Amino acid sequence: MNKILAIAKKELKTYFSSPIAYIVLIITISIFNIFFFMIIDQNREATLRDVFKAMEFLFIFIIPLLTMKVFAEEKFTGTMEFLMTTPTSNTAIVLGKYLGSLIFFTLIVVLTLSYYFVIEFFGQPDRLAIFVGYAGLWLEGALFIAIGMLASSLTKNQIIAAMSSYVTLFLLYFSRSFIKYFSGIAETLIRYIGTWSHAENFFNGLITTADLVYYLSGIIICIILTRVSIENRLWR
Amino acid sequence: MIISKNVTKYFGGFQVLKDISFEIGKGEIVGFLGQNGAGKTTLMRILTSYLPATSGSVIVADNDVNKNSLAIRRKIGYLPETPPLYSDMTTLDYLRFAAQLKDVPPKRQHVQIDKVLAECNLKDVQNKIIATLSKGYKQRVGIAQAIINDPEVLILDEPTSGLDPVQIIQVRNLIKSLEYKRTVILSTHILTEIQQIAQRVLIIKSGEIIIDETLENLLRDAGSDLEDVFLKLHSVKAEELL
Question: CA-CA distance, B15 to B1, in Å (whole number)?
Fold first, then answer.
């Protein structure tokens, strides 16, 4: 556990030691703020449902930027050889890296909690629905980070890692657009794999076991595959 | 301390190591000598359990590399050819991170870090960002992380490669000062380095050990310096091939 925390701490320090973290934070929060005020101004409702949808969409662009260097940079600079010749299990390495990225992402989500206080000040929002919406948003981001980390573990090139994350996240997010071309099992499968139906339930204040299983199993599968990927010594 | 039996390694269809067998005892200082591409780095990576051998077995400190990799990694210190440094960290933060990952008990970490900073002469740069350090300092930081857990076996892959003459002497002196009580393996293609540091030489050519001899015996039998031995060995082989 100590090693997982040590790696997570190092990851966080790495984020904040480069201007990229601050740029990502400032740009992300600025864009979220613009969307928040546009949506609230148009809807005139004390709900964050549509704000969550906008944020979910923007995560597709932001999260690959956060995760692209997680393993790709270590492989490129040779520090992966250091990590993997210390007495640290591959599971601890993967969990430490995941935790570091997840904490950074959580910071972004926490910074948007101000939206709740704004609508609380001006209206009477359904607090539970907003809390559930935030939980869904966080789970969605946690899944995206796991996918991005997996992509980063498969290559030494950060650009390739980011592009493959984008493609995967786009396919998951926009699966609703091409679901009409499928039928039967394929349609059911795409409906289940796509993120939109699961996130939407949370944004409407609804927690279902199926959605929780979807996110948690997705995260666990990606973490296991990342472990397999760094364990696979063919690339070394 | 280290036993390698019939180790072979293939990358795809290309054989990098051919039937490598040797034993290294406790406290020995052994130099792997060979041209670039001879297979030295691959052999070292197998000894550290970073790479698996295609066939054969390797025992390091009574543990099989394939079965008990974590136990081996607790007992070795390894400096890869390119020092594995996080350039955005300070020397101190990096060594603290290395100590945490290498199971140095939390209460001893401070003492241990102080010790390696002194041993590697890094006190002056302990708060500097690694990216701003000279190549010689970076190499010393790399050696410092390798010895932070007081390893029984120290494996150094081309520790003086790319350094200027003054830095080479500094790093060489540092390695000499670390020899006490440890088994040290270092690879190089610089012959004088072996002559000055090692007690025993394994000359590797095209993935095969062609000489495994103490430095004293080798020089006595050849009646000349190591450079002559090395050149002779390679030219003889070349003639045989012709």
Answer: 26
B73 with A13: Cβ contact below 8 A: no
Q: Closest chain A residue to B72 measured between Cα atoms?
A: A87
Q: Does A107 touch chain B (CB under 8 A)?
A: no
Average pLDDT, chain A: 88
Report chain A's C-alpha Rg in angstroms.
Answer: 19
Q: Do A14 and B84 touch (CB under 8 A)?
A: no
Q: Domains of chain B, with CATH numbers?
A: 2-241 (3.40.50.300)
Count chain A–chain B contacts defined by CB atoms under 8 A. 67
Say which DSSP state B125 is in. Answer: G
- Taking an 8 Å cut-off on Cβ atoms, the answer to whether A236 and B45 are in contact is yes
CB contact under 8 A, B103 and A14: no
Number of neighbours of residue A27 by Cβ within 10 angstroms? 13
Which residues are CB-neighbours of B29 under 8 A, at least 6 positions away? B179, B183, B184, B186, B197, B198, B199, B200
CA distance A182 to chain B (A): 40
- Nearest-Cα residue of chain A relative to residue B49: A85
Q: Please list every residue in chain B whose beta carbon sits closer than 8 Å to the beta carbon of residue A6.
A: 97, 100-101
pLDDT digits (tens, 9 = 90+) for A151-175: 999 999 999 999 999 999 998 888 8
Q: Write out chain A residues lying below 8 Å of B97, CB-based.
A: 6, 10
Domain ranges of chain A: 2-235
Instruction: State pLDDT tens for residues B17-52.
Output: 998 999 998 888 899 988 888 889 999 999 998 888
**CB-based contact A156:A147 (threshold 8 Å):** no
The Cα angle at residue A8 between residues A233 and B83, in degrees rounded to 5: 55
DSSP letter string, A15-70: HHHSHHHHHHHHHHHHHHHHHHHHHHHHH--S--HHHHHHHHHHHHHHHHHHHTTT
Pairing of β B29-33 and β B200-205: parallel
Q: What is the pLDDT of residue B130?
A: 94
